Amino acid sequence: MTVPGTQHLNNQATTSSWWQRLSWTSSAKPNTQTRRTAPASKEPKALTVALQLQRGAFRLQLNDSLPLQGVTALFGRSGCGKTTLLRAIAGLDRHPNATVAFGEHNWQQGRHFVLVHQRRIGMVFQESSLLPHLSVQQNLLYGFNRLGKDCERRLVPEQVIALLELEPLLHQQPEQLSGGQRQRIALGRALLRQPQLLLLDEPLASLDQQSRNDILPYLQRIASQSGIPMILVSHQLDDVVKLADQLVLMQDGCIHSQGPLQQQLLQPELAASGALSLLHAKSLGSKDHLLQLRIGQQQLQLPAPKHSQPSYRLRIQARDVALSSKPITDSSVSNQLQVRITGFHPAPHPAETLVQLQLEGQPLQALLTQQSVQRLGLQIGQLVYAQVKAVALD
Ligand SMILES: Nc1ncnc2c1ncn2[C@@H]1O[C@H](COP(=O)(O)OP(=O)(O)OP(=O)(O)O)[C@@H](O)[C@H]1O
User: Membrane-spanning regions, if any (predicted)?
Assistant: First the structure.
């Protein structure tokens, strides 16, 4: 299919060839179910931000470097400064004495200031800002057709339309679309601006749960296949865990901590949002509708999903993990894993404790009552058995 307005591009762009160009490092069509982060050969680009500002009682104080690869979630309580930081990175706000650099691109320093449309970024906000008088197709191509002559077009409309499955919507008007569909168009439009960085500010916040579930796989696809680093601002820890590779935790106008998501989930500050763990597991295949998974030397089984993958991310709520000092044989919980206790952290409720565990080198958390911890005599270094009651698969 050729989209009007793109005839000057390579009209030979076929579905099979764009897959190859979309995943820069792969010469074969990627498995859409397989999660991959940015191409391994590409060094992460560091985003450097130095910014101080005072707004009434709110003070933002940043002097940080964030290595961006895959999806970096910016997470923190309402009012901690996430949007302010994102807007400064985008160049939507110009703060005096700020420094913003993305890799070799110096976007702001002293009197030097690169305007927002010259920054090669794609942005998607909570409410998609589609132009109401233009069709979906015209909205998609709006930025693409205005790219400078010397701008390399690594993503062409055919690719983006296929990636986000927009073909049936092309001739509709924005008012005829659901919130989730509008956000898909906004994502497509952002990608067609040929961004080197995608900034997503609560892109799912205005959607109901069904629409969130519908659009998440598209975000996962963009993350795994495009290689474009993304910064995602989200209030929902669950969404962050489904999408992010890195997590930057903001608190009171500062960056409290940053690092790989799996480790960052252990930060006690996140426990208030519902402590959970992320485990990486390899598939051993399915039998009797049960997916067999391996984590190191240990195995667990779950109802098999529709589509199989070679590896999975498992989300486990800390409250869905029980501990026993000996293996339990007469329980309906079939997933039992040997783990070692590495620490105890206070939980949001004073009667509870977060028990930190190591499972084959990966961190796992269990939320127990203090009474249970004492009754079982649990101690750091002890080998115990974790019964996992529920697991979500990504
Ligand atoms: N235009 C403005 N004028 C004055 N104060 C502002 C303005 N915009 C934001 N603020 C204040 O700056 C602080 C940080 O706001 P910001 O929107 O960056 O926080 P946030 O972490 O993104 O919050 P949320 O998660 O609720 O969107 C808040 O205290 C907010 O009230």
Answer: none
What is the rounded radius of gyration, in angstroms, for the C-alpha atoms of the chain? 23
pLDDT tens digits along 151-196: 788 888 998 999 899 999 999 999 999 888 999 999 999 999 999 9
Sign of CA dihedral 194, 90, 149, 187: positive
pTM of the model: 0.82
Residue with the nearest Cα to atom 9 of ligand 1? 84
Residue with tokens 């168009």: 185
Question: Is the separation of the CB atoms in 315 and 241 below 8 Å?
Answer: yes
CB 54 near ligand 1, within 6 Å: no
The pair of three-digit structure tokens given for residue 28, joined into one six-digit string: 């074969």
Complete domains list, the chain, with CATH? 47-265 (3.40.50.300), 314-388 (2.40.50.100)
DSSP track, 126-182: SS----TTS-HHHHHHHHHTTS-TTS---S-HHHHHHHTT-GGGTTS-GGGS-HHHH
The closest alpha carbon to 241, from 280, 190, 207, 282, belongs to 280
Tell me the β-bridge partners of 354.
Answer: 345, 367
Mutate to test the pocket of ligand 1, among 53, 82, 206, 234 (most ligand atoms within 8 A of CB): 82
- Tokens 């693409």 correspond to what residue? 144
Q: Which residues contact 64 (CB under 8 A, 6 or more apart)?
A: 48, 49, 50, 255, 258
User: ipTM for the complex?
Assistant: 0.95
Decide whether any atom of ligand 1 lies within 6 Å of the 84 Cβ: yes
Give, using CA atoms, the residue closest to atom 8 of ligand 1.
84
The answer, yes or no, to whether any atom of ligand 1 lies below 6 A from the CB of 27, is: no
CB-based burial label for 383 (10 Å; 0-12, 13-18, 19+): exposed
Q: Which two three-digit tokens encode residue 393?
A: 């698969």
Q: What is the 3-state secondary structure (H, E, C) of 322-367?
A: EEECCCCCCCCCCCEEEEEEEEEEECCCCCEEEEEEEECCEEEEEE
